[in-house]
Q: What sequence folds into this?
């Protein structure tokens, strides 16, 4: 599976700062110290509908992580998956009377278009669950050999009790885990499971549903969590720098995936840092496909909204915050974009050297994008009220906003 084209990231004078970011596992800020090549895995979409603002906010957060790393003169190795076979996709295809493969391909293509328009830097490896199946089967077989997996009516489950570190990502108690498992794709009430929290590794073939040869596992398809484990271990191995996604992935998805990998390898942790973005609401409820309360990036684009304004709307909220999308949020972003473009359109202006360092400092401090926007606002205000004589300043601001914030002026 191919990703989307990369926009050019302008080079800036000087060098960026190392990123301090909130780690879900420890509950505090940590300073990321990757080697010359920083490694990040971000969980991708299940492609049964278009990219909504919640998706866009999540990928914007991890795009900023990449931009901070690139500004420190590191290379970035970025991997993202696509869950291109799963119950929600199959259910939507059946509801709409369309082929599930065609639906997945259509929505994945639209996601690529949205990411390109928003200037999100693409992953080097963009891997679908279906193409990962040949690597998933041996992992499930190995977990069974290790006594960490068991069969229930043809399905294969992972035993969470096989990992002594289980719970170290989300730090939730068993009662909270059980509630979230039921809400987020688990089946804690299924009779016969050793532990209600045990997740499925391999689902035996169901009539009328797609299935693949699973060798000793029989025909079926992979569970949700083992998919990302197979892809991450294949491209990174253990101990990569950042595992990222929305806050709703901390449990069960990232918790379960970490346990799978830790039992498979005998190493800990799967990722050095677990980073999670907040949720975006509409009309008081988290945007979700099940609720249908969605604002789509593609629809805004069709309505003529500049993608740079959409990106500024996302950047105006801290990545870890839960916030609500409103018409006012978008209007404010469009007005900010107009002010910034007017400011950099002049032949000269106030010096921007300090501004570049302000943006760098804000982003290095747990991706504080709102503080970075405020710094640019102040420069634009000085440009409007005082002007300046630095003929290079508008170009410096244009390049810095592009390189560090992903906004094209």
A:
């Amino acid at each position: 599976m191919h990703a989307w084209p990369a926009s050019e990231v302008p080079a800036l004078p000087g060098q960026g700062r190392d990123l301090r970011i909130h780690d879900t596992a420890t509950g505090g800020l940590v300073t990321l110290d990757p080697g010359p090549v920083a490694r990040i895995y971000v969980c991708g979409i299940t492609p049964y509908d278009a990219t909504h603002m919640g998706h866009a906010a999540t990928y914007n957060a991890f795009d900023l992580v990449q931009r901070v790393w690139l500004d420190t003169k590191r290379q970035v190795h970025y991997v993202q998956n696509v869950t291109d076979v799963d119950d929600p996709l199959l259910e939507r295809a059946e509801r709409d009377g369309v082929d599930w493969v065609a639906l997945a391909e259509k929505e994945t293509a639209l996601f690529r278009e949205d990411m390109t328009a928003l200037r999100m830097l693409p992953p080097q490896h963009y891997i679908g669950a279906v193409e990962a199946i040949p690597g998933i089967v041996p992992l499930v077989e190995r977990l069974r050999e290790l006594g960490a997996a068991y069969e229930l009516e043809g399905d294969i489950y992972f035993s969470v009790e096989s990992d002594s570190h289980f719970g170290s990502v989300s730090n939730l108690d068993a009662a909270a885990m059980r509630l979230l498992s039921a809400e987020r794709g688990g089946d804690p009430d299924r009779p016969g499971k050793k532990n209600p929290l045990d997740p499925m590794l391999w689902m035996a073939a169901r009539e009328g549903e797609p299935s693949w040869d699973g060798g000793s596992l029989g025909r079926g398809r992979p569970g949700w969590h083992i998919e990302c484990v197979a892809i991450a271990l294949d491209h990174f191995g253990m101990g990569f720098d950042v595992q990222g996604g929305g806050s709703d992935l901390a449990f069960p998805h990232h918790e379960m995936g970490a346990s799978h990998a830790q039992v498979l390898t005998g190493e800990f942790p799967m990722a050095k840092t677990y980073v999670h973005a907040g949720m975006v609401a509409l009309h008081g409820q988290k945007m979700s496909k099940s609720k249908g309360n969605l604002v789509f990036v593609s629809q805004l684009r069709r309505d003529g909204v500049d993608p740079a304004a959409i990106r500024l709307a996302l950047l105006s909220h801290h990545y870890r915050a839960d916030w609500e999308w409103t018409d006012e949020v978008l209007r404010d972003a469009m007005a900010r974009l107009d002010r910034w473009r007017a400011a950099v359109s002049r032949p000269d202006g106030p010096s921007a050297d300090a501004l570049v360092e302000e943006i760098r400092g804000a982003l290095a401090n747990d991706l504080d994008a709102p503080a970075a926007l405020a710094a640019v606002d102040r420069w634009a205000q000085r440009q409007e009220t005082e002007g300046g004589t630095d003929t290079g300043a508008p170009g410096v601001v244009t390049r810095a906003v592009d390189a560090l914030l992903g906004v094209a002026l």
Summary: The mean pLDDT is 96. The longest strand covers residues 75-82. The radius of gyration is 22 Å. The first helix runs from residue 53 to 71.
